[in-house]
Specification:
Strand content: 15-25%
Oligomer: single chain
């Protein structure tokens, strides 16, 4: 069987894709693995400063779209280029063994960083590198430089800069590491999260993802995932002046990180180690946050700079959206308009769970409640039951609970799930739908219309918090945008309004169903996400603020 690997078209990217193809071919000699070069947004705009990009992942999006469109089965990325938030429906199936994660200095005249003359111009397009250089050599001048490795080395030879900072891994893969004059120690320059590692991405649950998982290097995977988790927890992005590097020492994960201001005058470091990766990440993040790194990580020139955006998700579920908005320069204001309340369910109602053919889960909250009910009933989830879920967050929560989804529709709405499930379920299939009270009945009605026997189990409800009305009034006086991620958030928001929503406040909805509810309740909807996820919502807000170029 032939598998296509989407990659950028640069020399380095093609070499990296070939490394992945060779690793796969060694593991699966019966299959063919072929790199397919594509042009990304970053490649089409070589003069664009990465710090002025309206989004992260300028070298990634087109490769991911090729996976969604079926133009490729796998994609190969430099892990440091990946956006902070995961892409719904896609999975990072493998990380190849990490190369040298250090940065390298190449000067016009052989030199080290310490020996460069005052005023020397250092070429780099990275805020992280520029800030760390300034921290140790404030007398040097960081100069914005773009292009692939060959282009940058040519500009060095032409005298545009006096020295370059490049990733050692890229030079090594191109066979040019010998041109480096110094490999900068981690004490001087910590790398970007994921630097030196190659990630292989695939559609979640696909055969390609299964094959790629066999070439995953566990040590690299554990280290890079910890670095990326820290990045998400801090609310930074691949354009932040943040360095992080994790390494395994026996069974322990050692994670060190640095956050700087642009001038290099403020340098905040933290380090932790331990066997529980999540605890290590939390310890480093807490140590950095205790020293007020939030202001350093915000993008002052980000596309959402100066925009105050209300996040209405339930308390404890707002973190991903708050972080993603902050990474784009926004000032997120958390104002939960709902509280998730468990509905008491007689666990004896689950005694005949094994008689069902399908379980349908429509939200991460529904997964959590079902798992809790199974635990209380002393039951294990029957292995023969197939599971259908709406959305990548629900799918991820389900997998984390040990319940593997068999069906995740491409569009994350009930109508799409009903359409996808109808042709694959058996006649008279028994389906258990675990959901929130008050949810739309379109899903069970359409499944019944296709011959299924559907039982609805309502396990939780969304209710307003007791102090919502005064909090909402206070926050609405200061925000520019209100975000809604479900119809229930819209309903409780509108019920708590003391007056009409001011025209100056834009309304952003995660998808068409939420937008429909907002309009029915009298709100003007200004922004609707094309991809019905947290990341899609942020991208939609960014697009609404980004001028369309000719």
């Amino acid at each position: 069987m032939r598998f296509r690997l989407a990659t950028r078209g640069s020399t380095l990217a093609l070499v990296q894709a070939e490394l992945a193809a060779q690793a796969l071919a060694r593991r699966y000699p019966e299959h063919e693995f072929v790199p397919v070069p594509l042009t990304t947004h970053g490649d089409r705009h070589p003069s664009m400063r990465l710090t002025e990009s309206p989004r992260e992942g300028v070298f990634v999006h087109e490769l991911e779209q090729a996976l969604r469109d079926g133009r490729a089965e796998l994609a190969v990325h430099s892990a440091k280029d990946l956006p902070t938030l995961p892409t719904p429906g896609l999975t990072l199936a493998a990380f190849l063994p990490r190369a040298d994660a250090r940065d390298a200095l190449i000067a016009r005249t052989r030199s080290t960083l310490a020996d460069l003359p005052a005023g020397a111009r250092i070429g780099t397009g990275s805020p992280r590198r520029a800030a760390q250089i300034a921290a140790v050599r404030p007398d040097l001048q960081a100069v914005e430089i773009r292009g692939n490795v060959d282009t940058r080395l040519r500009r060095l030879a032409e005298g545009a800069v006096d020295a370059l900072i490049l990733a050692a891994a890229g030079l090594e893969r191109l066979g040019r590491l010998g041109e480096a004059h110094q490999l900068l120690p981690f004490e001087v320059m910590l790398p970007a999260p994921g630097q030196g590692a190659l990630a292989v991405q695939a559609v979640e649950g696909s055969e390609a993802a299964r094959l790629a998982a066999a070439i995953d290097d566990p040590a690299t995977s554990r280290a890079v995932l910890a670095e990326r988790a820290l990045l998400r927890r801090l609310g930074g992005g691949c354009l932040s002046a943040l360095g992080a590097y994790a390494v395994l020492e026996r069974e322990d994960l050692v994670l060190r990180a640095v956050v700087l201001d642009a001038s290099g005058g403020t340098v905040i470091r933290a380090e932790a180690h331990g066997r529980r990766d999540a605890d290590v990440v939390r310890e480093v993040a807490d140590a950095l946050q205790a020293q007020d790194v939030a202001g350093l990580l915000a993008r002052p020139n980000g596309p959402l700079s100066g925009l105050r955006i209300m996040v209405t998700r339930a308390d404890g579920q707002e973190e991903a959206l708050v972080e993603a908005l902050a990474a784009q320069g926004a000032d997120p204001i958390a104002c939960p308009v709902i509280v998730i309340e468990a509905i008491e369910v007689d666990t004896r109602s689950l005694d005949d769970l094994a008689d069902y053919d399908w379980l349908v889960l429509t939200s991460a909250n529904g997964v959590d409640r079902l798992v809790e009910l199974l635990r209380r009933a002393g039951l294990e989830f029957p292995a023969h039951i197939k599971v259908a879920v709406i959305g990548p967050e629900t799918a991820a929560r389900s997998r984390a609970a040990g319940i593997q989804p068999a069906l995740v529709p491409e569009r994350f709405v009930a109508e799409e799930l009903a359409a996808a499930l109808a042709p694959v379920m058996a006649p008279n299939a028994r389906i258990l739908l675990a959901r929130a009270a008050g949810a739309r009945d379109v899903l069970p009605e359409r499944l019944r219309a296709n011959g299924a026997r559907v039982d609805v189990l309502e396990t939780y409800r969304a209710i307003p918090p007791p102090d919502l009305r005064p909090r909402l009034a206070a926050h609405l006086a200061e925000v520019d945008v209100v975000t809604f991620t479900s119809s229930s958030t819209v309903r409780h928001f509108v019920e708590a309004l003391d007056a009409t929503l001011p025209d100056r406040i834009a309304v952003a909805c995660i998808g068409p169903i939420t937008a429909q509810t907002a309009r029915e309740l009298g709100l003007r909807v200004d922004i609707i996400a094309q991809e019905y996820t947290t990341r899609g919502l942020v991208d939609a807000i960014v697009r609404s603020r980004t001028p369309v170029s000719a």
